[in-house]
């Protein structure tokens, strides 16, 4: 009986995580609609704003994105003049990615546009609940990424 309950709770947890993620994604996409930047593209812009310059592989790891999806996003962002991709000076297989000045300005404006959402999220839980939720989400992510035992 315990295993069935565990599977049922796991299913419910997966649906709740998916629902929360999709709701936030829809909200951000709606806020950014007029800019032509998606929520996923904003994540890329923000990671680059924080890091300055990264290899595509490091960027993919940092934002938890597969290489092919990231490459497609970078091509679109490059076409819009928001990112610059250059060959790595010492590794012929790697590409360095950074924001253009236009990308920096847009990322900053979009980030400020999200402040009310961030504030609302921050106020929805007490500080100790936020810390607990973050710890639990990290544990869920680690469980999902860990190899399944057979």
From TrEMBL:
Gene Ontology BP, a term: response to stress
SUPFAM superfamilies named among the record's database cross-references: Winged helix' DNA-binding domain
Keyword DNA-binding: yes
UniProtKB keywords: DNA-binding, Transcription, Transcription regulation
A Pfam family reported for this protein in Swiss-Prot or TrEMBL: MarR
InterPro entries associated with the record: HTH_MarR-typ, MarR/SlyA-like, Tscrpt_reg_MarR-type_CS, WH-like_DNA-bd_sf, WH_DNA-bd_sf
Domain HTH marR-type: 10-142
Protein name as catalogued: DNA-binding MarR family transcriptional regulator
Organism: Armatimonas rosea
